[in-house]
Amino acid sequence: MDITVEPLTEDDRSQWQQLYRAYADFYEMPMDQQILDRVWGWIFDQGNAFYCQVAKTDSGLLLGLMHFRAMPSPLRGATVGFLDDLYVSPEHRGSGVVDALFAALQQQADDRGWPFVRWITADDNYRGRGVYDKVANKTQWVTYQMAVE
To answer: Is residue 142, in this structure, part of any structural domain at all?
Structure first.
């Protein structure tokens, strides 16, 4: 199977929504049409440094997606990359899709002059972490989240 990675297009909306809903289900996060519409808008907003690349077959079937963005790193005085979401449909895992997505992410980061791309994942995402350990270095940083009420 030939896999290409390219920017999301308007024609991909239905398949993108299916993949993104499955991603939200994986992390047990609520997902509704309002969230989908908002994220879709961010992707196509030229003033927002938020991007989506998708892995596709020759026939146009979406196999996976990644959302990433520019992130200021004040201590470095530089902009770095942040990978927000990475998802490969379960039936296509182990077929090279994630490798193609990471190769494309590496190229996107290089094109933008980002010295690195950072991301977080769930502690119990063992399959994902097995892949991440091959393509990146685990950092020393622990993530916290403060609720705003």
So the answer is: no
